[in-house]
Structure formats: structure tokens, C-alpha cells
């Protein structure tokens, strides 16, 4: 069997990570991960192009890798895929002749054949399972759809990834079984909007149909739902989720983006009323729910009074987790043409202030878990402390929230252990099994 040494960099969101894993699976059983790009046969960069900082990071990574492999003999093949290619591919191909293969999102399934042709090898047989998991034994992402049917004023995703396209339930159930058969205890469902799943398929039950197929799967210890648009969290769906119980965790990632009605309307958000209503609705079904949201500061036209109302909202809502982004002008969006731009420095200052408020809230919430026994999914050994592992409680999503540092008997990557919380920090916990 011919091996292919591959150095991979996957940038951006978990949805992009799933795309990377699919491309790697297409390279077949001869795939060998390679830490040194200069020693690889293929260097693959899956890029993000959502906002300007992500574009800059993607270009910088590509340039750094091009420089790293330039003097290698033989020189590895450099392939660039993903959102950046869909957004700026034509310009980049002129500016970056060092790149050998450019792959738009819809062409990513061609990587194996095109790489083999360029390297003058036979095209490999893909792996039996459609993904080469890269997240470790504790969890895996399951991308349930592509694109987005919403039209938020600040967002480039519909222009990059197209309209909503839900994956069929049969395909998703089969992929989930393949993941669980590898001993992974937690599935994290991701999409631009989970609550929109099935709308384009004509499924009148929507997300409920998919969850009916996933929740009974053997080996599933946790099912986590990320990216739940507030307009989709109807009493009907929440009632279904409450009745479902474990392995579904009562964790709700609801990207609100703001709290002031005028800002929500300007943003074109699908839920432009008082967001307190949707939080109250969730908590009426799940009194102890862990809530996460993302917010934008400095959106065009945001007044100081509107910003202060956002700060007050954060203080009152008491989210477990919060991500805040300073507004970034993006060509091709409606907000790019809006007047009354907030200076970037002011937008960043507003972001920092909200994060200071959230740090206090997070510390207070986590302090309440000290002395409790919690089930911890163990993800990986701690990189610096032998015997200590990095894991997560039910209210901690991978890669975006804090962690639980756990040690003791039976603690190993992929295990689910019962551990008592001994210490809390601003964003993390320390526990002993």
C-alpha cells in the first residue's frame, strides 16, 4: 500500500473541520500524518474566509507553509481549499503561484484524485468510513447541513456556502454510527442553524426527525446541539427536547448577536424582539440549562445607550459562556454599505468591557459546582502535567468553552468518569475522579 505523508492545517469553525476530515478520508488508508510540512508529500490548508481577520490568518498560513516547503526536495504539493477559495479564489490564484491545487468547497471531494495525478500516483481507495477523525477520542462533530437560509446583514456565509442544504437523516445516522463504533462518547451537532434542518427537505417535524434517529444510537453518552437560532426554539421543539432527556444535554448555544431591538432589526436577525423572551422560554423548559451566546459590538449605528443596554442584558441573562466579536466591515454584506460606522477602537473597547463582565459571571457560576460530582468526558492528556487530563462537564462544549482538568483512577482519553469538583477558576474547573 502506497503511503501519503500529509501535513494538514484546518482553520475556522468546526464545520470546516468536518470538511477537512472528509478530504483526508478520501486520501485512503495510506494516509500518514506528518508534523513537518517539508517532509510531507501533500500539504493541505483548509481555509476560513468569514471575516477579515480570518482571511488574513488564512493567507498568512498559506504563505508560511509555501516558504517552509520551498526548498524541500522533492517539494511537497501545496493544496488550498475552503471558504477563502470560494470568496477570493480568482484573485489569490494570480497572487499565490506557489499553490499547486486550489479547491473550492464543492470541489473538495476531488482532492485525492487531483493530488494523485499531480504526484503521478494511482488514485487511492477512500477509507470505508467517510471521515478521518481528528478531534481525539472524546468527541466528534456531526455536520448536519450546509449553507444558510437566513439573510443577516453582516454575514458572508450564504454568499460563500450557498443556501440551506440539509443532509438526509439516513446519511447522518450512518455517519453517527460510524463515529460511535470508534468509541467516541460525545457527538456535537453543528450547522449554520440547527433549527432549520429539514426545512428544505420538506420535513414537517424538522430537527425532531433527526434527533429521533440519533438519540437511541448505542454508545452515545452525550448529544450536544450547537448553533440554535432563537427563532427556531419554539415551545414545540423545547417540549420535545425536554421529554427526550439523556443523552441530550441541556446546553443551548443561541447566537443572539445583540439585545437591543433596533440593533437586531438593523442586523436582519430572524428574532428581532426582546431576546429575553427566548431565554425565558428555554429556562421554562430547562430551569438549569447552560446557555451560550455570541454578541457583536460596534455594529453600524450602535449608540452608546444601545451598547449599555447590551451590557445590562449580559449582567441579567447570566450566560454560562459568551463570545463577543467587535464588528468587522465585510465587502458584499448589507452592513458594509450602512452609515454611522462605529470606530474600530470603540468597538473593541466595548467588546473588552462585556468580556470583563462575563468573566465575573463565569467565575460565580463555576464556583457553584465546587463539591459536586459530575460526569467528565476526557478529551486528552494535559500537555504539561503528567497524570492530569483535559476534559469537559456537560455544560462545556469542546473548543469554545472552558475545560475541566481531571485526574485519578480510570481517567484516560475517551473515557467518561465521575469526578468531584475541587476547585473553580474563571473559566475552568479542577476535579478528582
Report the C-alpha radius of gyration, rounded: 22 Å
What are the secondary-structure elements, in order, as H or E? Answer: EHEEHEHEHEEHEHEHEHEHHEHEHEEEEE
Fraction of helical residues: 25-40%
Shape: globular
First and last CA, distance: 43 Å
Largest sheet: 5 strands, parallel
Q: The CATH topology of the largest domain, please?
A: pyruvate-formate lyase- activating enzyme
The average pLDDT score comes to: 95
Strand order of the largest sheet: 2-1-3-4-5
CATH superfamily of the largest domain: tm_1862 like domain
Give the total of domains: 3
Provide a count of the helices. 12
Unreliable stretches (pLDDT < 50, length at least 5) are none
Percentage of residues in strands: 15-25%
Helix/strand/pairing category: alpha/beta
General description of the model:
This protein is an alpha/beta fold and 433 residues long. The protein has three domains: 4-118, Rossmann fold (3-Layer(aba) Sandwich), CATH 3.40.50.12160; 139-367, tm_1862 like domain (pyruvate-formate lyase- activating enzyme), CATH 3.80.30.20; 373-432, Beta Barrel (OB fold (Dihydrolipoamide Acetyltransferase, E2P)), CATH 2.40.50.140. The chain has twelve helices and 18 strands. A five-stranded parallel β-sheet has the order 2-1-3-4-5, with helices on both faces. A five-stranded mixed beta barrel has the order 14-15-16-18-17. A hairpin with a 7-residue loop joins β14 and β15. α11 (304-317) packs parallel to α12 (344-367).
